[in-house]
Write a structure and sequence with these properties.
The chain has 235 residues and is mainly α. Helix content is 67%, strand content 2%. Strands 1-2 form a two-stranded antiparallel ribbon. A hairpin with a 7-residue loop joins strand 1 and strand 2. Helix 2 crosses helix 4, helix 5 packs antiparallel against helix 11 and helix 10 packs antiparallel against helix 11.
Length: 235
Amino acid sequence: MSQKSAAATHRAPFETDLPDQVRTVIEAIETDIIRGRILPRTRLIEDHLMEDYEAKRHVVRAALVELQRVGVVVKPPHLGAQLRRFDLRELADLYRMRSVLHRAAVAMMPMPLEGERLAALTRAMQVHADAAASGDLIAIHRSNMAFHRELYGLCDNPYLAESIRLHDWLSFPARAYGVADAGALEQACREHADMVEALRSGDRPRLDHLAQRHMERARDIYVGKFLDAAAPRRG
């Protein structure tokens, strides 16, 4: 079995044959997280979700199971399903791991990037830019994930690429609040374009710098919203 086919045996987030109704509820939950209607540690009560999304219990339950599988939802003992909340240590550890993975992928990418692979990445960048202009939050979120999938897939190591994708979903509860932030979205679009240009021109140090910086804005928004009070004070 090749590396690619072996990696494909592991289910990627939401790329399974989920029923349309389950996908619809997942997207509704994602959108409510992005809009700040669902906050860290908010309890996700099946009866309330059934009413909010006009969905049957088995559909809501299947959506929560899938979100739990990718780490967006957690179920602490005796508390039921809730949106994951990171503390400062957990967030630092997660982003340190993402940094390691991104840096390893950048080191493996072919440069300068040419032909259809450059064209595919450019198309993914434009789809995200168009979504940003539309204001459709779920389209912005999903097209951003698709751009990152195309970008980090260039490492040609399916295990590394899949690890990056899984950590993208693990970090969604922290990244989500940057999707609706106009400044963060403008910066993301600009950095996507700069990444494509760095690949086209063969500037690996520039791409490495961009890949690291690209994570910072959404993380800082999360810290400012939910963790500043927990941060140690200086002086």
